[in-house]
Amino acid sequence: MSEDGRGSEGGRVSEDKGRKPDQAKDIGVREFNVGFxxxxxxxxxxxxxxxxxxxxxxxxxxxxxxxxxxxxxxATPGDRIVAGQILRVPPPEPTHVDEKPKRExxxxxxxxxxxxxxxxxxKDLQGLVLNKPPGLATQGGxxxxxxxxxxxxxxxxxxxxxxxxxxxxxxxxxxxxxVARTSRAAAFFAKAFSGRTARKVYWxxxxxxxSIDDGMIELPIGKQPGTGGEKMHVDEENxxxxxxxxxxxxxxxxxxAWVELQPFTGRTHQLRVxxxxxxxxxxxxxxxxxxxxxxxxxxxxxMHLHARRIRVDHxxxxxxxxxxxxxxxxxxxxxxxxxxxALGDALTLDExxxxxxxxxxxxxxxxxxxxxxxxxxxxxxxxxxxxVTKR
Length: 391
Known about the structure:
This protein is of the alpha+beta class. Helix content is 24%, strand content 22%. Strands 6, 7, 8, 9, 10, 11, 14, 15, 16 and 17 form a 10-stranded mixed sheet that branches. The protein has a 5-stranded antiparallel sheet with strand order 1-2-5-3-4, with no helix packed on it. The longest helix has 34 residues, at 357-390.
């Protein structure tokens, strides 16, 4: 880590020039400046970030023997550190020759890099928002080798550290996925998700039409026994509390409905479990809806669940509020069922009651008018540029 706290390598190594014999133990001691991104974190967390090869046991021993210091004072692993403080760290302890070398991530191909960057729909100094396609896992696991986490090296851009995941989407769920670009942003966003201040809106196609157009599902969710944690279910006795709001946007007779979903808790597979539990599984979700989750008439058998919008406070002030375009199969299904995509964006995150049908139509018309105006402006701009070039 450099003296300004921007890296994890190096640091200042104390020299032994002019030392007295009783100061020999200080030879090799390292000093690091706490960087802005590490302001307020625990000391043991700092070691995980910047000296990951140093075990917690070693850090605890250094603290216990008084070798670990912050601004000259003895420190413990649980102490909070502040930007600008000086950490005094003993020299690294010798490693055993039989330790397994750390496995490095394989280099990404040009195609993988291009694919990863094509997913980016928002970029600033603290975060990225990706439009994750269906079929791509967020993280790796058993027999899962292609995933967003494995592509993050392509999204470092000019930043000094690798981006970090702060939440996840199911493999077959598409849409907005937030990624932090700094350690400070990762901590900030993680707190927003755990504190439920981050808001997410999903779109889904469901089988049949709910009798209530705007409802709150409050059913506890737990792991289904015998599935190894791969499947969840409603568990009234031992499940964790889970709340989901749904609102019907449009309906196709009694055959299917297009709904907006807002999770107010973050349980695994929550939206899928809740919709199946009330008798309206998400189209394409055979895991929770079985054969009943598939519509006839040429409707895609892929999952129709999409993270349409994410809104979260920004670490530097303001708000990140991003909308992700639908994947091809979902957009085609909406058209096939006669739904007007503009009606979905007419809804807002903060409404206490759903808008009337007429209000939805008015907003949809205003939304479409704004898009047409923007496109006319783009065409005029391109025409002006052409005329200047021709002259």
